[in-house]
Structure formats: C-alpha cells, structure tokens
Amino acid sequence: MASSTGILNKYIGDYDTLRPFLRYISLGCYNKQYFHKHLGINARTYEDNLARLRFFLPDSALITHRDGHKEIYSLHSDSYYSANNYLHYIYQIKNLKPNTAFYLISLLQIIENSPLPLTEKQIYDFHLLPSGNTCPPMMLTKDGFLDISFSTMKRYLGILAQMGIIRCNECTKPKSYSAKANIFSQLSPKELQELIHAIKYYIAIAPMGTLGYQILLILQHIYSELTTLSFPIQFKHKKIINTLDDAIVYEINQAIKQNASILFEYGDKTIQAIPIHIELDFLTGRQYLNAVIKRSAGAKYFRQPQTYRLDIIKNIRFQDIDDILYKRTLLQLKPQPKPVQLRITYTSSLDKNRLAYRILTRYPQAKLEQEDEHHFTCTLLLHDTLRILPWIKTLYPHVEIVNTPYLQRRLIKDVKEALANYDQYTTIS
To answer: What is the pLDDT of residue 310?
Structure first.
C-alpha cells in the first residue's frame, strides 16, 4: 500500500495553484530561487510540484539545464515533430479522494454488469460497503466499513447521470439507472481512424482542446491499435501552454451563454465584470478576456471596457444580473481606441523598409510618417495599449515609445527584470 499512498500524494486540491508554476516553467529561464522570491513558493512546494510533473507528464516533456550552480527546468515542445499537447495530462492532477473514486467505480461496475435498469434501492442492496479485508485501510472507518449512506449514493448517481456517463430513466417509478451503449461500436476501423484524425485536428484549433483529449483517452483504451497512428498535420503558432487556461475559457463561455456577470481574482484584486468575448494573440500566444466593469465599486452600471490576461485569472464565480441591465451594458459598450506613437530608428533604406514591413504586417492600419533621414514615427490606435508590449520588445533597439509614459515605464521595468533574471545589471532609463 505504500506505493499507492505515494501516488495519491501527487495529486493537488487547488489546480489554480499549479497554473502559474507551470507557466513559468514553460519559459525555461527561472530557477528555484526566482520561484521563491516572486511567487512565494518555498523549496518543499517547488520540489513537490516538480514531482507532480514528472509523474503525470511524459519523460521527454520536462527537461533541465544548468546556469552555473542553478538548475533550471523547462518544457520541451516541437510542433514540427508532433501536434500532441501533453499538457492535457495535468488536468488529471486535480484531486479526487480515494473513497470518492472507489464509490464511482463501484457504482459503474454494478450498473454496467446489470442486463436491466436498476433502481436506487436495488443498487444500494448490492452492498457497496465491503469488509475491512477487501479494501485499502485508508478507505475504512473505525468500524471497518466504508462510510457511505443512501443519500451519498444518490448524490454520486446524480453526478454520473449529469455527466452523461450513465442513463437516468426518470419515466419509471421509481426512477432507474442503466448503462449507456458504446457509441463507437458501430464504426468501422476506417471510420474510427477518420474520427481520431478529426478529433486531433479540432483539438489543435478549438478554444478548449482538453475536452477532445478526454475523448481520445477513451478511444485509446478501447481501440489502442488505432490511436497510435501518425497524424499528418502540423500547426503553426500553436502554444501548448494555453491548455492551462482551458477551464477558465469554459467558465467564461458559460457566463457569456447565460448572460451572467462574473467575479474573479486577478492578482491581488477581486474583479466583477460582464464578459464579452475571448481573444487570442497569435504572436505572443496569450489569451485575453474582453469585458466591461463598473467605474467604481458603488456604480450601478457596467460601463468601462477592460482587458484581462486569462493566465492571471482564477477562481471564477457566476453572478446573475438583471436582463435589462445586461442588454443596456452591451448597448453602451463603445470603447474608444487610444493612440500610441512610436519613434523608429534605422540606419539604411533597407533597414527602414524591413522595419516598416514588420509594422504594417502586424498593424495594417498603422500610420507611418517620415521624421528625418534616420527616423520615422508610427501611430497606432489601440483599445488595450499594454498588449503591444511583447511586440514592441521584438523591435528593440530600433523603437522608442513617444507619447505614453506609463507604457514607457512598464517597458523599462520589464527589461530590467529580464536582465536581472540573467544576473545582468543595467542603467537603462
């Protein structure tokens, strides 16, 4: 039993605590000391999280290198060789108590092995409570039996039915439960292969690819010889790290569907907002929530457009709002773009054309004006000025922010932080 206990210790109760850890690991430039200083992760938690990754991810996924005496971990990913996103495995880290897993599996076995639908009483009469010598000691109460009541069993049956794993026959009196047929059993090997390829394709382009991976895992157990087939498609700009935000994407989409506002944690703040839509920046791979918030805590209406990074959002809760208020918010949503002016320095006409091409490829509506023989200005109209920062960094040292002081300060702060992480010192100003 010692080995089973060790495996169970790899699980985690709060998945949101692992998201920032994995995201920083994916960047491949941060050591244990950085995690402690900037994320508040002590050495024990750091090593525990690495142990979880080693347990759930493929052996080739987690790689390490040394910078002096410092050990740095990173994630290996090459879209040229594989379209598989192994990060979907980390959703299995979410904690499921041993007794809960035992109850669910036992109920499924009882229902699956019955040729006829079973009532709740019939299922309970199967004596789900085994004696002490037939189950792990960690699952036993002081009396030597698993602690499950009739109401607890009903709750677990409801969960399985709601998830679509079993069928609840409510037309019968009393209601009964039965197994669902294998929907793939009627497909030919060729049709199954086509289905698997279709799933792998939509996993790569869908907003929540993790759902597709769960279907593939089921097919892998049933038709193992087909799931190992090669996938003849490559994807550009596919950021596997976005998988970490699939649960957040799902919650936001549900809120949009239900015309609900949401409360969520964003850094050290709690935000109430009406979600509008989610955007993906293909250059940086970041996902953003476009939403509307109140201008002040006491305000009645949601009137201020705001953008939030999905990787920072956590702990989403729904809040129902008046339908009239929701529609009024959408009608008043007319965000005004803000001008950002950049000064571009070049040394030759070839250099100038190259920089102008990069700007216009990214922002076709950009306004370029010649300043002198070695400089031209670029004016952009943006709804979220901070989102331009990663792209501006790619133009360094040819770019200077002219008219947006807070953007200048943020750029300088980011550059200093990056240099400090590589043990460099700068007098940048």
So the answer is: 92
d(C-alpha 54, C-alpha 5), whole Å: 17
> What's the pLDDT score for residue 426?
47
d(CA 37, CA 413): 17
Domain ranges of the chain: 2-81, 98-179, 189-238, 243-331, 338-421
Q: State the Cα–Cα distance between residues 427 and 416, nearest whole angstrom.
A: 9
The string of pLDDT tens digits covering residues 229-252 is: 566 777 776 778 888 888 899 999
Enter the tokens of residue 88: 């979907």
Please state at what angle helix 32-39 crosses helix 43-56, rounded to 10 degrees.
Answer: 110
pTM, full prediction: 0.70
What is the C-alpha to C-alpha distance for residues 117 and 134, in angstroms, rounded to an integer?
27
pLDDT in tens, 340-394: 999 999 999 999 999 999 999 889 899 999 999 899 999 998 877 888 888 888 8
Q: Which of 372, 420, 428, 364 is nearest to 396 (CA)?
A: 428
From 3.30.43, 2.30.30, 1.10.287, 3.30.70, which CATH number describes the 338-421 domain? 3.30.70
Choose among 243, 270, 233, 272: nearest CA to 255.
Answer: 272
What does the angle CA 138 – CA 140 – CA 141 come to, to the nearest 5 degrees?
125
What are the structure tokens assigned to 216, written together?
Answer: 């593939």
pLDDT at 370: 92
Residues (pLDDT < 50) of the chain are 1-8, 129-133, 137-145, 425-429
CB-CB contact of 243 with 210 (8 Å): yes
- Produce one character per residue of 152-173: b if its CB has 16 or more CB atoms within 10 Å, e if not: ebeebbeebbeeeebbbeeeee
What is the DSSP annotation of 214-255? Answer: HHHHHHHHH-HHHHTS------SS--GGGGGGHHHHHHHHHH
Name the CATH topology of 243-331: SH3 type barrels. (2.30.30)
Greatest CA separation found in the chain?
A: 89
Domains 98-179 and 338-421 share a fold: no
For residue 333, the model assigns a pLDDT of 62
